[in-house]
Design a protein that fits this description.
heterotrimer, A mainly alpha, B alpha+beta, C mainly alpha, A: mainly alpha, MetI-like fold, B: D-Maltodextrin-Binding Protein, domain 2, D-Maltodextrin-Binding Protein, domain 2, 2 domains, 3-stranded antiparallel sheet, 15 strands, 48% helix, globular
Chain lengths: 270, 428, 291
């Protein structure tokens, strides 16, 4: 009996916190789906409209921005998966001089991430003529210390016997990697991919600095350019654009909620 | 492995080619411009650009909306440093010195040197040309120019028993009428403030320049090396801002530029100081009767001139410069300046634009638009020096520290003057 | 296993990835150190070696002093708050209460949004007098708060934004850890008559320690790395009260165009992170020692 009461109490508390937590987002949804005059007035029967979304979509090349983000995360993700696998494989399967120091040097990137080094990385990019290119945005992120760390941890759990058995059958380094290590790390690849996609979808400062033209702008930069408050800002329009640019992630999340959570958990477990 | 490399290469090629299409026509222009979210402004620029391109099939032009003023300047400089500048851009008039120092723009008077060109340049209002010249050369052509004006809610004036056709003209009247306009709800909280002058950031510094002008002084001169931050006029101006909130006429604390039009439209404030660039936005969204007046002044009317000018970048071929000049002439022609001004509220920069039938019809329909033009004769250049961003930051810090109650006007302005002088010292 | 790595294979496995990593991590860090001893060159000023001049500027920079204080407060404020909330959320979501999926959705949603979108949302939420926050205060008869426009509240307001965005992600990690807590441990305690509170503090919390360390490190890095909301919401104002170090680096370098001072500030940032890493390493080591 007391337990039941407790449960109701905690449940109410939890839902209350969830409601407060959701307020800013719900407010944004409200403004996006109503006419500008209702953006700061809550009239319950105010007419809903999709006009803001149409207008925002018309006012800026969001389709292009989406495409740019898509290209960007594809480049980064493929490079990450390939390059981090190679490095992790070398560290787990082989012994070589200075491997400890090299690994420590790689892990420095966990702490000193590319965002911290915008000044010099911008100059480097400018020297090699890669400013304002999608590949230029992705360059500092192609090798990820986090990915290497995660895959190394996973590869270390691969049973030695499997590796040895494959060698007896005459498999070379590449076959062993492809047939033994990679399949066993599949869940980690998936988890890492989700984390990486959401990170690069959301990344802003570095793309802001290195892009100038709409042809290469990712959605985050496109959104910020769209929402600058120089002259009068229509809140409903900005909120519609904000929701629009994040919609793919939100929808994906709502559909695959459990998997998302499970995979993020996996990426966090060391 | 191989496929992914190929994919990377092709992505790279696509990304690079998208930006640098090879030159097949006489000139390929890239044109950076800044405007707010204000959709009609972007559409208008795009439409004008398209028209020019259609009239000049030998050229191409791509209009790039690069964000707000500051970001557009940053983008243009970044691109120029990387060796891929736009050929032409609308950038803040006050960035003239920065652009000269970075050596990225050419004087337009070097390209436009025929007598007809000179006549064309002479056709712009003097007020707008003040900050387009340096060392005897014209570097920029006015386009997206504005001054701030006093917007007020006539319905609120009526409700307060004030004459809706007689907005305040002096600081004293602003306080006096502001008190009448301030409305409190049953809890004693203010539901409508008397006025709203943005005090934060670059917008705050711009409006502050207007206060100073009305006290008979200026913040800078055309030399670009003088900052007059600590003067009797600036102290009086800052004290006036403080007084507005002390008298309960204006909300205390820093006031942001971006929220201001919204607060006005929501009836949160009975009046506001903001750019004429907001005219069309207010016209479209206001649910009440509203008017526009000169900025109330300390010792008489006064306002800062602000906004953006056309610049031509130096890393360009002769063909590109000629095409860019032609493009600028097209954009500032009387008819097009009128279209632009009507769509946005920016002040058409030439007298002949105001003579067009469209413009005459517009000022008849929306007489508020004429106020900024009339106010132009009392307006002075906006705060601009070499190392503009650094020097202005000192002024911004001074204003913000005072309005947020962290410093006294005199002391804050003295510190800002010292900071500005330290930056400008090596330029003198 | 653990064979010697043949040279050819090493080139393929290690050379390209590490080259990329070094080029955008170690090289720029060293380059920043070098550039910090030069002046900021422009067309009107030739570049020249200035020794420690930039560091003198750094020591005398009043704005920087304020910004370092802000950054410290920001880290000290956001990290414990985010962790505390994340643990609370994880407990709620893990308790199999009615409405759990709604709670999880609400808590985790902000994590999926880009910081720039979060900043837009909160900008309108905070707008004094008209935003939802003011309207809620109004319902209770309270005056609106000028969240972003006063020096007392701007930094705290930015902290809330960061916590709102991050707590959900940390909740996930705690959720994983909570689910790994052996039920029999709790059952045993319950049999001995321990209250729920005692069980939490004596059994569950110690088991969450590794997660807390992981989360704290992440939160610390993010506190220095993520300034998108500052750029969108306040530009560091008013009177620098919400400026953070990375934002300052961005402003000095890209809007004031002082690349030399930007490099100097970068060196400061890297050193600071280095010190924090050393402290963290020391703490972790000590912990390993006791176990």
């Amino acid at each position: 009996m007391k337990k039941g009461m407790n449960k109701i109490l905690w449940s109410t508390l939890g839902l209350l916190l969830a409601a407060v937590w959701g307020l800013p987002f719900l407010y944004s949804v409200w403004t996006a789906f109503h006419d500008e005059i209702y953006s700061a007035n809550f009239v319950l029967n105010a007419p809903l409209t999709l006009e803001n979304f149409f207008e925002a979509w018309r006012a800026a090349p969001f389709a292009l921005y989406f495409l740019n983000t898509l290209i960007l995360i594809t480049i980064v993700l493929i490079a990450n998966l390939v390059l981090c696998t190679l490095v992790a494989y070398a560290f787990v399967r082989y012994r070589f001089r200075w491997s400890g120091i090299l690994f420590a040097l790689i892990m420095v990137q966990l702490l000193v991430s590319p965002e911290i080094l915008i000044v010099e990385n911008y100059l480097t990019l400018s020297r090699i003529g890669m400013i304002d290119t999608i590949l230029g945005i992705s360059l500092p992120y192609l090798t990820s210390a986090f990915g290497i760390f995660l895959l190394r941890q996973t590869f270390m759990t691969v049973p030695v016997s499997l590796d040895e058995a494959a060698q007896i059958e005459g498999a070379g380094a590449w076959r062993v990697l492809w047939n033994i290590y990679v399949p066993l790390a599949k869940p980690i690849y998936l988890a890492y991919a989700l984390v990486s996609i959401s990170f690069h979808w959301n990344n802003f400062l570095w793309p802001l600095i290195v892009t100038n033209s709409p042809e290469v702008r990712p959605v985050t930069v496109g959104l910020s350019v769209f929402a600058t408050v120089e002259s009068g800002v229509e809140w409903s329009l900005v909120n519609a654009a904000t929701l629009m640019t994040t919609a793919p992630l939100i929808i994906a999340f709502i559909i695959f909620q459990r998997q998302f959570v499970a995979n993020f958990m996996r990426a966090g477990i060391k | 492995m191989k496929t992914s490399t190929r994919f990377l290469t092709s992505c790279c090629a696509a990304a690079v080619m998208g930006v640098h299409a090879t030159s097949l026509s006489a000139a390929d222009l890239e044109f950076y411009f800044p405007v707010g979210v204000n959709a009609p402004a972007v559409d208008t620029i795009q439409a004008l650009t398209d028209t020019w391109a259609a009239l000049n099939p030998q050229h191409t032009v791509e209009a790039v909306y690069a964000g707000n003023y500051e970001e557009t300047t940053t983008k243009a400089l970044t691109a120029a440093n990387a060796g891929q500048p736009p050929q032409v851009a609308v950038l803040l008039s006050i960035d003239l010195f920065t652009l000269i120092e970075e050596d990225v723009v050419v004087p337009i008077s070097d390209i436009a040197h025929t007598p007809e060109d000179q006549e064309w340049i002479d056709g712009f209002y003097d007020g707008f040309m003040k900050d387009a010249e340096f060392e005897g050369k014209t570097y920029a052509i006015p386009f997206q120019r504005s001054t701030p004006v006093y917007y007020y809610n006539k319905d609120a004036f009526r409700a307060a028993g004030l004459d809706p056709e007689a907005p305040p003209t002096t600081w004293d009247e602003m306080i006096e009428m502001g008190k009448a306009l301030t409305v409190k709800d049953s809890n004693g909280n203010v539901s409508q403030w008397g006025t709203r002058i943005p005090t934060l950031g670059l917008g705050g510094a711009w409006l502050f320049g207007g206060l100073v002008v009305s006290k008979g002084d200026v913040l800078t001169t055309q030399t670009g090396v003088e900052a007059r931050i600590d003067t009797p006029a600036t102290i009086a101006s800052l004290e006036f801002l403080l007084e507005l909130s002390e008298q309960g006429v204006m909300a205390p604390g820093g006031i942001s530029w971006g929220d201001t039009p919204k607060a006005f439209l929501e009836g949160q404030t009975a009046s506001m100081w903001t750019s004429t660039g907001n005219l069309s936005f207010v016209e479209e969204n206001a649910t009440f009767d509203w008017g526009v007046g000169f900025l109330p002044g300390g010792d008489g009317p006064g306002a800062p001139i602000g906004g953006g000018n056309f610049y031509i970048f130096s890393d360009t071929t002769d063909e590109e410069r000629e095409a860019a000049l032609d493009f600028i002439k097209f954009m500032t022609s009387p008819e097009n300046a009128a279209i632009w001004s009507i769509a946005t509220g920016y002040v058409a920069p030439r007298a002949d634009a105001w003579e067009t039938p469209e413009m005459k019809a517009y000022s008849e329909r929306l007489p508020q638009a004429l106020v900024a033009l009339d106010q132009l004769q009392y307006a002075e250049r906006e705060f601009a020096t070499f190392q503009r961003a650094k020097v202005t930051q000192h002024l911004v810090d001074a204003i913000e520290s005072v309005v947020t109650g962290n410093a006294e006007p005199a002391e804050a302005l003295r510190a800002a003057q010292e900071g500005a002088d330290a930056v400008l010292g090596e330029y003198k | 296993m653990n064979k010697r790595l043949p040279f050819g294979l090493a080139m393929v496995l290690l050379f390209v990835p590490c080259l990329l990593l070094v080029a955008f991590t170690h090289y720029p860090a060293l380059r920043a150190l070098l550039n910090s001893f030069w002046n900021n060159a422009s067309s009107r000023r030739p570049s020249k070696f200035v020794g420690v001049e930039n560091y003198q500027t750094l020591l005398e920079d009043d704005r920087l002093a304020q910004i370092m204080l802000n950054s410290t407060l920001y880290a000290l404020g956001t990290i414990p708050l985010a962790i505390g909330l994340a643990i609370g959320m994880a407990l709620l979501v893990n308790a199999r209460l009615p409405g759990t999926s709604l709670m999880r959705l609400s808590f985790f949603m902000p994590t999926m949004l880009p910081m720039i979108a979060v900043a837009n949302i909160w900008l309108f939420f905070y707008a004094p007098g008209i935003g939802l926050a003011s309207q809620i205060l109004g319902v209770f008869g309270l005056p609106p708060i000028n969240f972003l426009g006063s020096t007392e509240t701007s930094l705290v307001s930015m902290m809330f934004v960061a916590v709102w965005k991050e707590a959900g992600l940390f909740m996930i990690f705690y959720l994983a850890a909570l689910q790994a807590v052996p039920e029999n441990l709790k059952d045993a305690a319950r049999l001995e008559g321990a209250s729920a509170t005692r069980i939490f503090f004596n059994i569950v919390l110690p088991l969450l320690r590794p997660t807390t360390i992981f989360v704290a490190v992440n939160a610390l890095i993010n506190a220095f790395r993520l300034v998108d909301h500052v750029i969108v919401m306040t530009r560091g104002g008013p009177n620098n009260s919400s400026a953070l170090l990375l934002y300052y680096i961005y402003e000095v370098t890209f809007s004031q165009r002082d690349f030399a001072y930007g490099a100097t500030l970068t060196v400061l940032m890297v050193c600071l992170l280095g010190v924090l890493a050393a402290v963290q390493f020391w703490v972790l080591n000590r912990k390993a020692h006791y176990q």
